[in-house]
Amino acid sequence: MIIYKTFFKVLNKCKFPVILYTVLLLFFAGFNMSSNDKSMDFTAEKPEIMVINHDKEEGLTKNFIEYLKQNTVIKDINNDEESIKDALFYRDVQYIIYIPENFGEKFLDGKNPQIEVKSTSDYLSTLANMIVERYMKVAKNYVGSTSDNEELFSKINETLGKKAEVEVTSKMDTSTISRLTRYFNFSAYSFIAISIYVICTIMLKFNEDKIAKRTAIGSIDYKKINLKLLIANSGFCFAIWGIYFIFARILIGEIAFSEYGLYYALNSLIFVLSTVTLAFLVSKFVKNKNTITAFVNIIGLGSSFLCGVFVPMEFIPDFVLKIAHVLPAYWFVSNNELIGSTEVFAGEFFKNFCINGAVVLGFALVFFIATNIVSKKKVEK
Amino acid sequence: MENIVEVKNLTKEYKKKKAIDDLSFDVYKGEILGFLGPNGSGKSTTINCILALLNFSKGKIKIFGKEMKPNSYDLKKKIGVVFQDVAVFEELTVFENIDYFCGLYIDDKNTRKKYVEDAINLVGLQEFKKYYPKQLSGGLLRRLNIACGISHKPQLIFLDEPTVAVDPQSRNNILDGIKKLRAEGATIVYTTHYMEEVEILCDRVIILDKGKIIASGTNDELKDLANIKERITVETKDLDNNHLNEITQLPEVFEALYEDGILKISYKNEKNNLENVIDYLKSNQIKYRKIYSERPTLNDVFLELTGKELRD
User: Fold this and answer.
1) Within 13 A of A43's CA, how many CA atoms are on the CB side?
2) Beta carbons of B92 and A6 less than 8 angstroms apart
3) Could you say which DSSP state residue B66 is in?
4) Is residue A356 within 8 Å of residue A331, measured between CB atoms?
């Protein structure tokens, strides 16, 4: 009991930097959640194109340009090579179509006039290409079917005008869940940073050479002392976790207490165990206050960048993600993404959730065993 | 006599340099054993080895008849240590600090409270219970350091230079406390480089130099090792070389030195030496301000054995 009591007395003496640090990280978590609010709703996009027409704007050519006007955004840019290159480079347009001379006439004669194009090779230019190809395929099918051009254009337009209806059947509030996922993903950094900062600050007192020497000649086994200190540290970190969870309710609303929120909470609670044990291990190597900041930055920021805390995992190269497998934050973020993308919490979800959670708990166990090994080495030097 | 600590052929090497070289000694129940030696002579290293805080290259250590290991928690319960450096929490008050370190041995809250109060009384910190370490003077801090080490009422206490940089009042308080601990039945190993403390406190003394025991025994036994048995000091300004030569020829004189108005005469035996000197000074009409006689100190013994001063 005396160890817990002393721990909290020391913590009480360090309360101002601890409160400041916690509030700052909560603020950043809230800020991170509200910024870059990527919506999961679907909105159709139109590519921006430029049409350089060397044909007369009549007949099929006119119909083709009308079709392009409906399905793309046609931009007016100077028709010189330099301006065109700049427009592509700065993504002012994604696609440039050169309609050759007598294009309409040749097409209606059944010849195969080639359209020259330039593109930026991104997904919008691909979309523009698909729009152009669609027109060419439909037009080719109807050429020769009638001698009346007006009837021909009418058939082409009718076919191209058909659209598929898309109905979204999911009842997920994707936008809010996305915010919740980001909030809890960011918590990986918050928990690592707070755990390392606070635990190392307090343990610096307990691990100070002179105090540690006096403790080493005491009649309590170092493993018992480590366990008691770990429990005391966990108590503090769970309190921070509680605040973080309540803050989620305040910022995001009822959904924080929904099934989603509870899974996020459970996942983060497991993660806190790993951060506490990690911080406890790190504290054995901390010699002064300056090194604490270094450890917070290296481990906190390092883990966060490698494991998709700040940047979504899909934007991180595969080899980086492979390296991230050796960090608990990777499994934590994976579970958050899993929760965020799940509509029905059953079967496969449970299996994957438990595997990721077990890996994080495994890390916690490894960190604690490593701490005891380091303590033993220090006692028996 | 019951052996509380047995050290046999203890050797500790740092990168092939011997910090302790084949040390063997016993500590008897109820005694105060003094470890005397200059800084770097191996006193603290010896204590750290005995307490299993340091690995050692060779030798055997037994405490209360059992081999001492880092996980000998049953033995550690009976041992108290006061290290040279003050080791306390800045964030805890005097009472809380002693309570914490006592708590590493004593679980029961009520017993612990009583023990903590006893320790506070022993070192005379009653008025400072609620003070934080940074509010204490150096001497009071040292007293707190001692209280933290002995509050669990250990049977064997190691005190590693507990009076370094302490004011005279605190030093007397600390030395009185140590005497009280012994009176309560504790066995004490006391390291210091202050020979006066050893002479006041210790039943037996081990003199260490460069990791080796160069002499051991009671104060008297050690002083017998010195060639001189008495030293007479005279403060006078009326002495010339003829006088000095004549004094050197007086009976039993081993050596006579005159420097800066102070005459120091060393004797091989203690036989009416003071009377003889006074007679000589009177007969030669030499005026003097002060004259006194001393027994040889442990510093003289150390000087005799190593050719250097203890505080070099």
Assistant:
1) 7
2) yes
3) E
4) yes
B234 shares a domain with B218 = no
Q: Are both B264 and B181 inside the same structural domain?
A: no
In a domain, B307, yes or no: no
Q: Domain ends where: B203, B223, B243?
A: B223
**Res B312: pLDDT:** 46
CA distance A281 to A324: 19
The beta-carbon neighbor of A214 closest among B55, B99, B101 is B101
CA distance B260 to A210: 46
In terms of domains, do B193 and B280 share one? no
The partner residue sitting opposite A213, judged by closest CB among B53, B71, B92, is: B53
**Final residue before a domain boundary, out of B199, B223, B247:** B223
| Contact between A217 and B74 using a beta-carbon 8 Å cutoff | no
A2 touches chain B (CB under 8 A): yes
Instruction: Give the Cα-Cα-Cα angle B169, B173, B178 (nearest 5 degrees).
Output: 150
Residue B309 lies in a domain: no
Residue B236's domain comprises 230-295
Which of B47, B98, B104 to mutate: most A Cβ within 10 Å?
A: B104
Is B299:B310 a contact under the CB 8 Å cutoff?
A: yes
Confidence of residue A318 (pLDDT cuts 50, 70, 90): confident
Contact A105, A59 (CB under 8 A): yes
Class of domain A48-161: alpha beta
Quick check: B43 contacting A, CB < 8 Å?
Answer: no
- Give me the residue spans of the domains in chain A: 2-39+174-379, 48-161
Assess whether B186 and B278 both reside in one domain: no
Count of domains forming chain B = 2
Same domain, residue pair B10 and B156: yes
Q: Is the same domain home to B203 and B238? A: no
Q: Which of residues 91-130 of B touch A (CB under 8 A)?
A: 91-92, 96, 99-101, 103-105, 109, 112
Q: Which of A204, A209, A217 to mutate to test the interface with B (most CBs of B within 10 A)?
A: A217
Task: Name residues 164-223 of chain A within 8 A of B (Cβ).
Answer: 205, 208, 210-211, 213-221
pLDDT at residue A381 above 70? no
- Tokens 């305040």 found at: A250
pLDDT (tens, 9 = 90+) of chain B, 312 residues, equals: 788 999 999 999 888 788 898 999 999 999 999 988 888 888 889 999 999 888 888 999 999 999 988 888 899 999 999 988 899 999 999 999 999 999 999 989 999 999 999 999 988 899 999 999 999 988 899 999 999 999 999 999 999 988 887 888 888 888 888 898 899 899 999 998 888 888 888 999 998 888 899 889 998 888 877 777 888 999 998 888 899 999 998 888 888 999 999 999 988 887 778 888 999 999 998 899 999 998 888 777 877 777 776 654
SS3 content of chain A, % helix, strand, coil (to 5): 70, 5, 25
Looking at the fold, whether B240 and B199 belong to one and the same domain comes out as: no
Whole-prediction pTM value?
0.71
